Structures are given as structure tokens and as C-alpha cells.
Amino acid sequence: MARVARGDELAYRQLSRRHLPAMLGLARRILGNAADAEDVAQEAMLRVWTHAPRWQPLAAFRTWLTRVVVNLCLDRKRRTQWVALEAAGEIVDTTPGVTEKAEHDEREQLLAAAIAELPARQRTAIVLTYSEGMSNAQVAEVLDTSVSAVETLLIRGKQNLRMQLGNLIDGQES
To answer: Among candidates 95, 76, 101, which has minimal Cα distance to 26?
Structure first.
């Protein structure tokens, strides 16, 4: 970051190559929309360039960048509405296995929709922990809270998901 702060474009490109794919994946999982995720990831990397001179190494760079991406995603989620899977209509493809794949995809969409409906901090804790594989301590650092608060967010988030997806979780899809 010190090199980026001095305007070193090569250092910025290396930093982008190293972190952009992970940040794009994180944004996709939080937003559920590839186009919005790309916008968020690019905005985050633009902020790396513009904020580099003011960056303070109080946390690991990846943690700081993850926080930027999460905040941008949460801002974007507040502005947009989710469109339900039912709006897509019926499946017409008769290729073998397509029904099973569609059912799997639908379960994934239902889970993503349920996660999207969680309160913002619960949703973020769930995504960072289970999709990004971060430890509770890392999530606490990203969310600027304590590990016990993260554990509480995870417990409440999972309880809310169980309430929303009870039939799906029990294998009795309605």
C-alpha cells in the first residue's frame, strides 16, 4: 500500500490481481447479482487507489478491503429490491439431469434469498463465516465488533434461516 500511495501503478495492479477475485466472489455472494458484484468490486479497488495515501495499517489490508466491499454491498442492498425466483417461470428444457440441476439451483436461490432477507449484520456474518471461510475473530475485525457478538449474530442468523427454510432444510420442500 505504501507503493500504491506513491502512485506506483505496477504495485496497484499486483494488489488488484491478488485481491480482486476474492472480493468479487464475496460481493457476488452478498449481492446475488454478478453485474452488481462487479461494480462493487471495481469500486472497492478504485477506493484502494484513491485512499492509499490515507490508509493506516491498523488492520491487515485484506481485512480493510473486505470491510470496504461489505459496506459497499450493504449500501447497494439498501437501494435495490430482490426479485423472487418464481418470477422466472417454468422450466422447459428436457435435457437429462436438467430437472435435478434446476431443483438444486432453486434450493441455492431460496437459500440466497433467505440470506438476503436476514438483517444486514447477520447476513454479513453468515457470508463471511460460511462462504468466505473467515474465523470469528476475522469477522469481528471486519464488522468492528467482538467475537462473542459475531457468535451471537451467527446463532441468530442460523435461527432465522431455519425459520424461513424449515421445509427445505428438512428435505420436505413444499
So the answer is: 76
- pLDDT tens-digit series, residues 94-127: 666 767 777 777 888 888 888 888 998 999 999 9
Q: How many domains does one find in the chain?
A: 2
- Which of 79, 113, 141 represents a domain boundary (last residue)? 79
Range of the domain at 25: 2-79
| DSSP 8-state assignment for residue 113 | H
CA of 103: how far to CAs of 32, 96, 114, 169, in Å? 18, 13, 16, 14
Is 88 a domain residue? no
pLDDT at 88 over 60: no
- Give the orientation angle of helix 34-51 with respect to helix 9-31, to 10 degrees: 140
pTM equals 0.54
Q: Are residues 111 and 144 in the same domain?
A: yes
Residue 86, domain member (yes or no):
no
